[in-house]
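Incident review: delayed structure delivery

Summary: a single-chain prediction request sat in the queue longer than the usual turnaround. Root cause was a stuck worker, restarted by the on-call engineer. No data loss occurred. The affected request and its eventual output are reproduced below so the record is complete for anyone auditing the incident later.

Affected input:
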Amino acid sequence: MSHIFGIHVISSVLENDPARLKKIIVDGKRHDEKLQNILQLAQRAGVPIEHVDKQCLEKIVGSVIHQGVVAEAKPRKSLDESDLETLLTNLNKPAFLLILDGVQDPHNLGACLRSADAAGVDAIIAPKDNSVSITAVTEKVACGAAETTPFIQVTNLARTMRNLKEKGIWCYGLSDKAKQVFYQADLTGNIALVMGAEGKGIRQNVMKQCDVLYSIPMQGSVSSLNVSVATGICLFEALRQRWS
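Output delivered after worker restart:
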């Protein structure tokens, strides 16, 4: 049993997968509307509620920003290659996937999940090894998106990309060394955007599976962007093209 925290996170779990929650622990001195909404959702789902003081919450989760609510939660259901296959089979629109190669910072993963949810991404794919899984920090940063955007971890990312391409899904990689500018890409069909790890970028064996490499044009003095920032830029350019 682990602990998750934050208004948006626990609200999303209560709405999407309340069976994960064993108990909700709240700051007894908070009586605002957002917390009352959580209490109503918990009561409706039959999740026990415990009222404690703020110091008790801090003993449980430390100095993180818990917003006065913590929950004891069961482990998330792991998704793998078979879940990806099922998801793609059931899609009734062009596939829109995000591949994260070796992202290890839970804050960056959380930000990518939040952007992916907002842009309408069907799933995020990441390798099982040398890649962060969804943690309590990730869930807090994602603001509920970890419950709504499938996060699929695969054994061999390069092999998964080959399978995607066999299904007619184009894999577009982002690299600061690429000569083609991302805004020249046609992002309206079946696509998977491939983003590399912080500092290292896309690994060579994964890069070889990309159909095309693109770069984000940089006009200032910095040479690269944080992976979650770059991901947000690319996802919403894709959404812009797919919107019309």
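Verification: The chain has nine helices and eleven strands.
Action items: add queue-age alerting; document worker restart procedure.
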